[in-house]
Design a protein that fits this description.
Layout (H helix, E strand, L loop, with lengths): L14 H23 L7 H8 L4 H10 L3 H32 L5 H7 L3 H28 L2 H16 L7 H26 L7 H7 L5
């Protein structure tokens, strides 16, 4: 499939090249994400609490601190961060398998669109599938650290003041957080590969993404 008629590209590559290059880029991004998010401290207290309580986080934290539970909040989020890091590391093969099996429509168009078009396509087509696949790993980590009980014990006093809105599915929310953070890291790697020649460290990435004029 020749694309030399497109004013934003130079040279030739096929749709098959584009498909393979997209999967390679996403795989590198996944490994990049796993390496970073598997490290100690990758998930901040603020990010964790915003994920659990996106609308009422400040109010809930203030209530808990007023009740003298600030230290318990810090202990809980530190343990939850460890569970998230372990899940992020274990999510890498899940992402890689999903990328390997993914059908890519209009691969040339995705390459030409620039920005984070590859990651956007991954998120749109199998993002929910990946989150569901990661959920068992997240739940295993939560069980290992007994986090569901910690969370219920922690927010029990706040529930008396704030009502039933704190009845949360901790595993589902944390699976979503880990998946979204992985996508953010894949986006970082995609931008790097698209804009920096030294990041295209394979012949295929050079052939496909090296031809797009920025």
């Amino acid at each position: 499939m020749g694309i030399n008629s497109c004013s934003t590209l130079k040279g030739l590559f096929t749709a098959q090249d584009a498909t393979a290059a997209i999967k390679e880029l996403l795989s590198f991004g996944t490994q990049h994400g796993g390496n970073l998010l598997g490290k100690n401290g990758a998930f901040s207290k603020e990010a964790l609490m915003q994920s659990l309580l996106p609308k009422d986080v400040d109010k809930v934290i203030n209530v808990l601190e007023t009740l003298g539970l600030g230290k318990e909040v810090n202990r809980f989020t530190a343990t939850l961060s460890a569970a998230a890091e372990k899940t992020a590391e274990k999510s890498v093969p899940i992402f890689l398998q999903g990328i390997k099996k993914m059908d890519i429509g209009d691969a040339v168009g995705i390459v030409k669109n620039g920005g984070t078009a590859c990651t956007d396509y991954l998120r749109k087509t199998i993002g929910d599938t990946l989150r569901k696949a990661i959920a068992p790993e997240m739940n295993n980590a939560l069980d290992e650290y007994k986090l569901a009980k910690q969370w219920n014990d922690l927010v029990a006093p706040a529930k008396l003041l704030l009502g039933d809105k704190l009845n949360l599915d901790l595993g589902n929310l944390m699976s979503g957080l880990v998946t979204n953070m992985m996508f953010n890291k894949i986006e970082e790697k995609e931008k790097e590969i698209r804009t920096k020649a030294q990041a295209r460290n394979t012949a295929l990435l050079q052939k496909v993404f090296g031809q797009v004029i920025k």
